[in-house]
Each structure stands twice: as structure tokens, then as C-alpha cells.
Amino acid sequence: MNKRKWEVVGTEGEVPVIVLLLAWISANEVWPEPFIENLAYQVAVNASRTRGRLAAAPAISNLFQVCSTWRAISRSNPLWRNLTRQIWGVDNLVHNTWRDEYVYRHCTAYNFRISNAVYTRLNFDDCDNNALACRCLALSDLHLACGFDDGSVRLFDLSSRLHVSTFHPHQRDRLGPFSRAVSGIILTDSKLVFASLDGDIHVVIINGPGPRRAHLGNMMIDGTLVDFTGCRRWWVGLYAAVPGRSFHVWDDETEELVFVGGTLTDPEALLGWRLLTELTEPLGRVRVSNRDIAVACTGVRVMAFDLQNLGLVLNEEEVERGVVVSSVDVSHDLFLVVDNRRVASVRRVDNFEEVCTFTVRGGGGGGGGGSGGVRRGAMIGCINGGCIFICTGGIIRVWDVQHGQFLYNMSQRIGDPTALIANERHVAASSSVDATIHLWDYSAI
Fold first, then answer.
1. What is the mean pLDDT of residues 5-32?
2. Does residue 76 sit in the same domain as residue 219?
3. Within a 10 A sphere around the Cβ of 101, how many other Cβ atoms?
4. Are residues 52 and 121 in the same domain?
5. Do you know which PANTHER family this protein is assigned to (predicted)?
6. Which of 233, 242, 240 has the alpha carbon at shortest distance from 193?
7. How far is Cα 151 from Cα 172, in angstroms, rounded to an integer?
8. pLDDT at 126
9. What is the pLDDT of residue 440?
10. 152, 445 in Cβ contact below 8 A?
11. Hey, CA dihedral for 10, 11, 14, 19, is it positive or negative?
12. Residues with Cβ < 8 Å from 191, sequence gap 6 or more?
């Protein structure tokens, strides 16, 4: 073992550690395996934080070349489990080993980087497609859910890419032609929760009975439910039209309402009522990070609040040039926001620290009314752990999330977009052209 090998492994910030190790090894020929395993973990995490998630694997690969004893650490299941959780944010083992899981996640992320995907146009034959506009999309590991302006939700199986179910809300009197329009979906592998503008929330157990209404909306008290999201622990609704009731939070397990409050959408009260008769530009958006932090916005303000300490605002910012509401999204501990000057920035959800910024070029505008809640020529954006996706002029453009580096244009033109979503394996978009649903699968084969 020599210093030259260490120079390959070491990165800026690790040099003091390496100096200490070289001094220590002169008196100790045998290294404890837990010590080497912890070193490999730290090298990978440091590389991921400074150069991006794809840099972790080459960093520890160099480390494993030091000697046969160190190569043996590469077979440590606890090491790969910890690295998969830390770098890829994955807690569930899908493949045979945690090393296989890590390799799969790495290769899939690399496919995102080089635009290597399988493209599919999804079809559903239980209605006249031209009569519907898709307003929102949700992805899980197994399914894609699409919410439409008539209140229905269609579920697709991602492995077969087939339409498997359609769910309709319970009927009741309608106040305005779009009161049943789907405003948000929460999707896991086993459960689907969807909400409509009138405030009704329905729960579906996948492969179980039909929808059950978990919450009956009352627009006279709460206003219109303009956006709805959540996670395995919380449901979060963003309302407009009634002052002082912008946010509603429910406990996912008990389905009990645990918080009501906030003034974020108070200036949009009149526009909230208008949504019932005309699907104008999105008034606001709310997304939840993996740290139980909700990020919400309107056209002029962005804020983050703590779901574990309900009512506690962590950060808030007025946006002078206005926010493109349809281009605000959250992934892990980062969020994307685009302003009306077409300047996009990625920030940390807890303190709004800027990670990168860049200018979105190409056709498209920054909002407006129209089919599906987004006008023709509008801009829609989303983010996953490694990439930013923004659709303008019918073309989806992709940037690196770490440095804001432009990567490529996706080759398929989708027309005027109505919704766009990404996770760590798929990208999905809906178009106002024949209510088409587009799907890209980047998973490693």
C-alpha cells in the first residue's frame, strides 16, 4: 500500500484523514474491517455530496483496489444497505442483495444522465379520450395514476403499461362544472388517495374494493381545494377562497384532520371560486419532502413549513418577478422553483439555500388558463434526485440537479402539456392533444 494509491482515493476535505491513516498504518499492518467499511462509506458519501450521486461508485471502486482485504469489504451487505439509503434514499430491498440494489439505482440514474429510456404512449379505452383533460399525475414503484377534470382517476400498471382500473368519486350535487375535477393524488404501492376541487377526498385500496369517501368537502367553510399531496404519514391540502384556511393537514393512518390555518392563498380568494367554472392557471402548489417538510407557493410567494410541528413556518420568501406555479416541485430535500423571467433555481427545503440556478430557454410562457389548468404554451417543471425536467413549447428539456448543467432535449414532442412528473425510474407527462399520456422508463435492464 503506498501514498500514490491514496491520492486516487482521496478528495478535497479527506486529506487530513488520509494523513492520519498513513501515520497509523506504519505501526499497524492489519486494519479492522469495521474501520475500512466506515472509511468506504465516508468516501462514497463525500463524493456524492461534492460531485453528485454518480461519483460515489467510482470513488469506492478505487478504494477497493488497494488490496484483497479491502476488496472483501465490497461484499459487505451492511455497507451497501447504508449507501443505498444515504445516496439513493431507498429503504426497501427490491433486488436480491443491497449491492444489487445499489448497482440498479446507479445504472438507472446514469440512464437519466444520458437519455437512455423506453418511451410508451399509454392508452385507455373506457371513454372518449377527447372528452377528458388530465390535470395531475402520480407515480409509485408499481403504478401511474392520472386524475382528470371529470373527477375520475385511471391507474396504469408500469410493468405491463396497461390501463388496469378506473375510479370514480361518489356522486353529489355539483357547484360549477369543474367542482369534481381532480386536484391531487397520493399514490403508494398499495393505496391511492385522490381529492377534488370541492374538497372531497377518496381512498382506494389497490386490488381492493372501490373508492371510499374519507372526507366530505365543505366549500362554504374551506373554499376550493386547489392542490393536494402527501406521503405515507400525511395528507396536505392547499385551499383558496376562504381567508385564514389555506392549509389542511390530515393524519394518513387515522384520516383525522389535525391542522387548519395559514394565509398563503388569501389574496387568491376570488380566483379560488373561479376555478369551479373555468380551469384557469394554477393558483398554488404544495409538495412534501422526505423530511416531513411541506413546500407551498402561489404566484408571488414560496414558503416551507414543518409537518411535525404543525404551524411552524421554516422559511418564507416573496418572489418579486412572480412564480411559475406549475414549475414548482420537491424531491428528497430539494425543491425546484422557476420565476417569470424563466430563471430556475434548486434550493434546500429547510433553509432555501441555493444549490444551482440556470435560465430556461425555448418556447412557452409562464402560466395562464386553459385545458387541464395550464394554458397553451405554458411551462411545466418537475424534479427527481438527479435531474430537472421542464417542458416548454412541447419539448421536455433536462438539466442536472447538482450544478444546473443542461443535459439534453427529450426526443419526443408532446404538444401542450397539462401535467409532468418524475421519480427515480420514470417520467410521465400528459398532453392536451387527445388527452395523451406519455411514459419514459429509464430503469436499468
1. 42
2. no
3. 21
4. no
5. TRANSCRIPTIONAL REGULATOR STERILE APETALA, WD40 REPEAT PROTEIN 12, 37
6. 233
7. 12
8. 64
9. 97
10. no
11. positive
12. 203, 204, 205, 206
- Domain count of the fold of the chain: 2
Higher-confidence position of 434 and 328: 328
- The distance from CA 352 to its chain's CA centroid, rounded to whole angstroms, is 17
Residue 365 pLDDT: 45
> pTM here?
0.88
* Range of weakest confidence among 86-90, 200-204, 285-289, 425-429: 86-90
The domain of 61 spans: 14-89
Tell me: do 142 and 46 sit in the same domain.
Answer: no
Residue matched to cell numbers 477497493: 64
pLDDT band of residue 396 (cuts 50, 70, 90) is very high
In angstroms, how far is CA 207 from the centroid of its own chain? 25
Cα 416 to Cα 173, 328, 362, 380, 438: the distances in Å are 32, 18, 14, 10, 12
**CATH code assigned at 228:** 2.130.10.10
40 and 177 belong to one structural domain: no
The Cα–Cα gap between 295 and 168 comes to 29
Same domain, yes or no: 33 and 145: no
347 and 259 inside one domain: yes
| Bridging pattern class, strands 162-167 and 426-431 | unpaired
**Cα separation, 301 vs 299, whole angstroms:** 6
Residue among 194, 201, 204 nearest 222 (CA) = 201
Under the banding of pLDDT at 50, 70 and 90, the label for residue 367 is very low
pLDDT above 90 covers what percent of the chain? Answer: 62
What is the spatial distance between Cα 443 and Cα 445, in angstroms, rounded to a whole number?
6
Cell numbers 451497501: residue:
80
141-173 pLDDT per residue, tens:
999 999 999 999 999 999 999 999 999 999 887
Query: Is residue 350 domain-resident?
Result: yes
Q: What is the CA radius of gyration of the chain?
A: 23
Q: Does some domain include residue 6?
A: no
- Region class of 344: left (phi > 0), else alpha (psi between -120 and 50), else beta: beta
- Model confidence at 8, pLDDT cuts 50, 70, 90, reads very low
**Conformation bin of residue 338: beta by default, left when phi > 0, alpha when psi is -120 to 50:** beta
Domain stops at, among 45, 70, 89: 89
Task: State the pLDDT at residue 139.
Answer: 97
What's the start-to-end Cα distance of the chain, in Å? 37
CA gap 386, 322 in Å, rounded: 26
Tell me, yes or no, whether 167 lies in a domain: yes
Distance CA 167, CA 68 (A): 57
**CB-neighbour burial class of residue 269 (10 A; exposed 0-12, middle 13-18, buried 19+):** middle
